[in-house]
Specification:
Elements lengths: L8 H11 L2 H19 L5 H75 L3 E5 L5 E4 L1 H7 L3 H4 L14 H14 L1 E9 L5 E12 L5 E10 L1 H15 L9 H14 L7 E9 L2 H8 L1 H17 L6 E6 L2 E9 L2 H16 L2 E3 L2 E3 L3 E8 L6 H17 L5 E3 L2 H23 L2 E10 L5 E12 L3 E3 L1 H11 L2 H21 L7 E4 L2 H4 L4 H12 L6 E6 H4 L3 H14 L2 E7 L6 H7 L3 E4 L1 H4 L6 H16 L3 E5 L4 H9 L4 E3 L7 E2 H10 L14
Parallel strand pairs: 11-12, 14-16, 16-17, 17-18, 18-19, 19-20, 20-21
Antiparallel strand pairs: 1-2, 1-5, 3-4, 4-5, 6-8, 6-11, 7-8, 9-10, 13-14, 13-21, 13-22, 14-15
Length: 676
């Protein structure tokens, strides 16, 4: 047992202090010896002195033993401390080894994960050395390009290059890769089978500890399907789905680009042609949109075939097309192209063994005279197109500043006409039709009159065209039908009217599928017999679709309604068509009547029409008879009925009632037999 484990700790500390220091030990021994000597020298006997000496030597032995034990204890303590330090160092080494092993396990797991990602990635991964020699590729690379690893390792990626990019493009790519250490972008590449595909390639440089490039890693994705989808979306946004032509958005963009780079004094003319098909709505309404769509496709193809590659033809919607012509030296060249397009559109189109014809009206605006912006050029070409329609359609017209006033007037007319229908501002006038052999009233035509609050009376020819183009002809025609039949009922109640009242069907009315039912309902509501109603159909309108016309007119005839073909002679009716229809009356167009008293050619045409009517047992009438000379010629040619200013203009219902009352006892025109 060591002294540190004795019962008296104070004594232990004293022994450690005394015996571990030699100076303290000698001094202590000297003091004890001196004390013993002085105390007992004289008093004690020799036995006591001997006993004391023995005790002193025992104590000295004990002290020496304690000193040795203390030294041994100190050495043992130092050894224990050294051993503990060694143990701590081993523990630290073990912990470091454990951490190192953990990092190794993590690194191995990351390597396994990286290898798994490398092999299982759907994107192609390519690793090269600093000279771009391929070291490794993954399965995704093979799936995209078709090349296996053993076919490409050791090669450069040049085998993927297509002819879609220049050498300079790849030089710029490598230059950016060297300076920035990274490049990414879109490339056209070529697969093993030679097929082209679009890829998105990202290349990054990998450097070593000294900052030098050790590898390049390229990641490529096949974006062909995405590009195809983007192109489809872009095509849908910029092209018309029916005809495949550019739409309004792409047309606007191309026009802006052309105007931005065009020098008016050096680069020639730029022309905008606004094309609108004439009476196309009638085809859609009568035959259906399927026929209309086929017709539009044919028209689009014809327009494209009659233009240069550098020109643009676009479809705005419906039956409206726009053509951009550039690099023309003279305005006359633009007109030549426009007339060529008019002729191309007018050629017949055969759809399901049915021959169809449609014409177009074209308005032309020229840069920079007629506008310097896309909006101005388009607006002015549209204005010129309406001018072409007003000129009889099937023609082309240049823009004129005076047209702006006409267009402005048309817009006001359209808005005012809507208001007039709602507020019942319109009024029906009646113009008598006179039987030339007896001078009696053979009927009358109901004509809409409109007194504008600012412009006064407006010609029916002017506002009826506005009504047709703006979609107002249906409510207007319905109003005319019911108003005329109510007036007939009033005249019959007064026992005045003994002849039919006629009015002209608009193209929109004629196209309605339920027109027969509408007319029958109107007759029943007014309590008027069908024989007192005569429906007039323009010859050109009747010939648009002969089968539909025949069916509808037979339906009218079965109802007991009289039928008349107006504006006869300017269309292309056939004898078989006239015979099949069983119509009641032909009305010679006023353009032939106006020449009757001026030349023999007009007389021969009118005579031929009259003889045709007699041979088919059809009543023959002439409209627009304004002079005595015209009337006399018609009497000489044995025309049966005449209508025009030579008798009276169209008059309100009240005045016509007075006329009927005045003519009741005597004929309106003095009877005279026409010369043989």
């Amino acid at each position: 047992m060591s002294l540190s484990k004795s019962g008296n700790p104070m004594l232990t500390r004293l022994f450690r202090l005394v015996f571990r220091q030699p100076g303290w030990f000698l001094g202590f021994m000297g003091l004890i010896g001196l004390a013993l000597f002085l105390a007992y020298a004289q008093q004690l006997s020799n036995e006591l002195i001997g006993l004391s000496a023995a005790l002193m030597f025992s104590l000295l032995a004990l002290i020496l033993t304690g000193h040795l034990v203390g030294k041994l204890e100190a050495q043992l303590s130092q050894r224990q401390s050294d051993l503990q330090s060694e143990i701590d160092r081993h523990k630290q080494t073990g912990q470091a080894l454990e951490k190192s092993e953990s990092r190794c396990r993590q690194a191995k797991a990351q390597l396994r994960l990286a290898a798994s990602v490398f092999e299982s990635s759907h994107e192609g991964i390519m690793i090269t050395d600093p000279n771009h020699r391929i070291l490794k590729v993954n399965a995704g690379f093979t799936l995209i390009t078709g090349y296996r690893a053993e076919e490409v390792v050791g090669s450069t990626p040049r085998f993927l290059h297509s002819d879609q990019h220049s050498v300079q493009y790849f030089d710029d790519l490598n230059g950016e890769l060297k300076t920035a250490g990274h490049w990414e972008g879109e490339l056209w590449s070529r697969r093993k089978d030679g097929a082209y595909f679009t890829e998105w390639l990202s290349i990054s440089a990998v450097t070593d500890d000294e900052g030098r490039v050790s590898h390049y890693v390229g990641i490529l994705s096949d974006i062909s399907e995405r590009k195809l989808s983007e192109e489809k979306i872009l095509h849908m946004a910029q092209y018309d789905s029916l005809t495949g032509l550019p739409n309004r958005i792409l047309l606007q963009d191309r026009l802006e680009v052309l105007l931005a780079h065009l020098n008016p004094g050096r680069d020639g003319y730029l022309a905008v042609l606004f094309i609108d098909l004439d009476d196309f709505k009638l085809i859609n309404d009568s035959l259906g949109h399927d026929y209309g769509d086929i017709l539009l496709k044919n028209i689009a193809k014809r327009l494209s075939e009659n233009l240069r590659k550098e020109d643009t033809v676009a479809r705005l919607g419906g039956d409206e097309f726009v053509v951009l012509l550039k690099d023309f030296a003279h305005r006359e060249q633009v007109a030549t192209v426009a007339h060529k397009l008019v002729e191309a559109v007018a050629k017949p189109v055969v759809i399901n063994e049915m021959e169809m014809r449609v014409t177009c009206s074209i308005g032309i605006s020229i840069f920079p005279e007629d506008g310097r912006t896309p909006i101005e050029l388009m607006k002015n070409a549209d204005t010129a197109m309406y001018h072409a329609k007003a000129k009889g359609r099937n023609n082309c017209q240049y823009f004129d500043l005076a047209l702006n006033e006409a267009v402005h007037r048309r817009l006001i007319l359209e808005n005012s006409l809507r208001q007039a229908l709602e507020e019942r501002q319109l009024q029906l006038y009646y113009q008598p039709q006179i039987e030339l052999s007896s001078g009696e009233i053979a009927g009358c035509e109901a004509i809409v009159h409109w007194k504008h609050p600012e412009w006064g009376f407006i010609s029916p020819a002017e506002f009826m065209s506005v009504a047709e183009e703006s979609g107002l002809s249906l409510p207007l025609g319905d109003w005319v039908l019911h108003t005329a039949l109510r007036q007939v009922r009033r005249w019959q109640d007064m026992e005045l009217l003994f002849a039919p009242v006629s009015f002209i069907l608009s193209p929109a009315q004629f196209a309605q599928e339920n027109l027969g039912r509408q007319i029958m309902t109107a007759l029943e509501q007014a309590n008027v017999e069908p024989c007192y109603l005569e429906l007039e159909l323009a010859e050109n309108l009747a010939m648009k679709d002969i089968n539909k016309t025949t069916k509808l007119l037979h339906e009218f005839r079965d109802l007991g309604v009289r039928l008349a073909i107006s504006h006869f002679g300017i269309g292309y009716s056939s004898l078989s068509f006239l015979k099949r229809l069983h119509i009641d009356k032909l009305k010679i167009d006023r353009s032939f009547v106006s020449d009757l008293d001026k030349n023999t050619e007009g007389q021969e045409i009118v005579y031929a029409i009259i003889q045709l009517a007699y041979s088919l047992h059809i009543e023959i009438a002439a409209e627009g008879v304004d002079t005595i000379g015209q009337l006399e010629q018609l009497q000489r040619l044995r025309c049966q009925i005449a209508q025009g200013m030579v008798f009276t203009p169209a008059i309100p219902a009240g005045q016509f009632t007075a006329l009927l009352e005045a003519c009741k006892p005597e004929p309106f025109l003095k009877k005279s037999e026409p010369p043989q």
